[in-house]
Amino acid sequence: MRTVKEPDVRRGEILDGAIRVFAEKGYDGATISTIARELKISQGLCYRYFPSKEDIYNAAIEKYADIIVGEFLACRNADSHITAQLDGIAQSFERLKYAEGRDESLYALFHSRNSERLHNELMLKVAARILPYIQQSLVIAKEKGEITVESPENIAILGLYGQLGVFLAPDLSDDDRYATIRTGWTRLLGL
């Protein structure tokens, strides 16, 4: 007997199954066929919700980016002093580790040995989503007289995308990443 599910539920199940397959087999080893087998559904049903493997891949990036941005925004307080906001970065690191641990398949997919491309695309997507919030925080900090940089919007771009390099550096410990990011922002903002 055929099971009829709401489209959002079915789409979510297909995405979750695809994430498990990508985590296990890597992007190149995964196919719509293997994803359908994992879920015990037809390939046609997969194609109904995702026209291609690339679309599922992109949806996985979007899903994980939503988690990361949500954790960042949960720690953000745009009304606090800019130095307190910088200290909030440490909290967002801890919250992010907790969030990643809640979904083992997503964590495995984005942090496996062969997932560098996926991880880098994820970080760029997250940076693009977070940038407006950082720009807003720096504009407010300038209006309050907490910083005196000439162009807070451009400093936000420089700081955030420079921070990505620190995130992607393979040989840094989490403590070194945080210290480097905190020091970089402090210097950029003249604090």
Question: What's the quick description here?
Answer:
Helices cover 79% and strands 0% of the residues. The chain is built from nine helices and no strands.
Please give a handful of descriptors for the protein shown.
9 helices; 2 domains; Arc Repressor Mutant, subunit A; mainly alpha; 191 residues
Q: What does this protein structure show overall?
A:
This protein has 191 residues and is mainly alpha-helical. It has two domains: 7-56, Arc Repressor Mutant, subunit A; 57-188. 79% of the residues lie in helices and 0% in strands. The protein has helices at residues 7-29, 32-39, 43-49, 53-75, 82-102, 104-111, 116-143, 152-168, 174-188. Helix 1 packs across helix 4 (53-75). It is elongated.
**Total strand count, please?**
0
Chain-averaged pLDDT: 82
Order of helices and strands: HHHHHHHHH
Unreliable stretches (pLDDT < 50, length at least 5) are none
Strand residue content: under 5%
- Tell me the number of structural domains: 2
Secondary-structure content class: mainly alpha
Helix content: over 70%
Question: What is the overall number of helices?
Answer: 9
Distance between the termini: 66 Å
- Write down the overall geometry: elongated
The biggest sheet amounts to: none
CA radius of gyration: 20 Å
